[in-house]
Amino acid sequence: MAAQNHIPPRSVWLETYGCQMNIADSQLVTAVLRRAGYAAAARPEDADVILLNTCAIREHAEERIIGRLGDLARLKQARPGMRLGLLGCMAQHNRAALIEKAPWLDLIAGPDSYRRLPEMLGAERFDPAIDVRLNRGETYGDLAPEYEAGVRAYVTAMRGCDKFCAFCVVPYVRGRERSVAPDDILREVRGLAAAGVREIVLLGQTVNAYRAGETGFAALLRNVAGVAGIERIRFTSPHPSDMTPELIETMASEPKVQPYLHLPVQSGSDRVLAAMERGYTAGEYLALVARLRAAIPELALSTDIIVGFHGEQDDDFRATVELMRTVGYDSAFTFKYSVREHTRAFRLGDSVGEEEKGRRLSEIIALQESISRERNRALIGREFPVLVEGPARRGGGILAGKTPQFKTAVFPGHPEIAPGATVRVRVESATAHSLSCALA
Ligand code: 5AD
Ligand code: SF4
User: Fold this and answer.
1) I want to staple 206 with a disulfide (CB 3.0 to 4.6 A). Which of 79, 239, 272, 409 is the partner?
2) What pLDDT was estimated at residue 124?
3) What is the C-alpha to C-alpha distance for residues 175 and 112, in angstroms, rounded to an integer?
4) Which pTM was predicted?
5) Which parts of the chain register pLDDT below 50?
6) What is the C-alpha to C-alpha distance for residues 81 and 38, in angstroms, rounded to an integer?
7) 140 ligand 1 Cβ < 6 A
8) Burial 326-363 (b: 16+ CB within 10 A, else e)
9) Domains in the chain, please, with CATH?
10) What is the Å distance from ligand 2's center to 77 Cα?
11) What is the Å distance from ligand 1's center to 403 Cα?
12) pLDDT recorded at residue 264
């Protein structure tokens, strides 16, 4: 017994790739392992266990992770007792190939297997473990993730996706849509508010498809808004098809729900949208944007766009450019189409060459840059409440925070302004990416 007390806790190094959902999942994994007696390692070189929480959304993401795995495999050679594991979407996506090509991996665990990690890692005599079963009931709703300190926290509201867009691997690697029970979410949010969090971002692959019994997404937003101490609520990412009138009304009338929406469009061409199986036409999307702006005049919009989907002709691409101009997004995340195994589009092919994809991507990046700059410059002279996050990256006593529209605002610090405070600022100058402000 006595000897056991001197065994230091096993240490774990966890790296996270990909989207906000993965960051939230890593906070869950950290909590699961912490409860099982693991401590965080200061460096990968010191860790007993190294885990990569991975992304499979595009080939590029997977290539980066494979490169990193190569480095870590060498580290493991030098330290044979170390265990190396792959978690998340890529573990789920490439399980067969990984077992064959990366035999030095000790553990492969998909997004629904995190509860079992201590068991998988903790066997007396260690056998390589693999668990990539998807579980349509798993929400981890009873487990409190280990949140990072800060004024904003990302809270998982739903997992998985049932939309099956033709290009997307998410439904295959994250499994069926399921919502976290409202009581679990509210307990989490109350705890965060008590710990000083002021802004909640509700997360889900198609977060506005949320439904738990009688509670739909609009009702969930109103419930979260009822939590004292929480001042701002956002959510990401909504799907255009699930933007119900009730949700728009709630965004318009509930003051804590902020006027910002990330509304992925993917393409401006009806032909491409149909091939992508997105479930709306460009006209329907634009009508939705018009309804949103009529209800929420100060709304900022961002989006995701894919160029070079199989079959995308020049006029399809021009339709995307046109839609970007018509909407005038505040910002956009833009991607070259990447063929993904298992998806419906996998068999279609990849008709647009790499060079042409690159050309189309550069064009819309430049276009968005100029639209963003123009929209931000139009705000010069306007005043906004900014939730203070902390020192700006540029240093020099400058503070940073977000406007209600989720734009980064920087402004001179003051001894009385601490993170978590909301200050009023006036925009003095603007770039495509941030607003330089004075205290108003
Ligand atoms: N190729 C390129 N981009 C993709 N996305 C999803 N799947 C692919 C793919 N196969 C983009 C979409 C989605 C964002 C998260 O990633 O734009 O909204
Ligand atoms: Fe992928 Fe479409 Fe689901 Fe978004 S809605 S995660 S793009 S399948």
Assistant:
1) 239
2) 54
3) 9
4) 0.95
5) 1-4
6) 16
7) no
8) ebebbbbebbbbbbbeebbbeeeebebeeebbeebbee
9) 11-131 (3.40.50.12160), 136-258 (3.30.750.210), 292-378 (3.30.750.200), 383-439 (2.40.50.140)
10) 39
11) 27
12) 98
